[in-house]
Amino acid sequence: MSVDAAAPVSRRFRVTGRVQGVYFRHGTRIEAERLGVKGFVRNLSDGSVEVLAAGAAEAVEALRAWLGHGPPRARVAAVTELPPGAEGPPPSGFEIR
Length: 97
What we know:
The protein is about 25% helix and about 35% strand. The radius of gyration is 13 Å and the shape is globular. With about 100 residues, the chain is α+β, with helices and mostly antiparallel strands. It is built from 2 helices and 5 strands, in the order E-H-E-E-H-E-E. It has one domain: Alpha-Beta Plaits, CATH 3.30.70.100.
């Protein structure tokens, strides 16, 4: 069974490490927009960042790979895929929340 790289998918991620106060959300939005991914990025109270990414499977996977290092000042410890949330359909673009 093959996976269609252009088929739309929606995935949630939690990024840990030094990811707040280093332009991680801004960098994520720029990369998501470059890839044509919709969704959002937001800081969580525990110091991690949550990302909802929706779009072509190949583009979402490319964003997930980028999350593994983030912008230059970030120090990513881990990127964990989360179960689907109850946030409803993704926004029409990519938002910083």
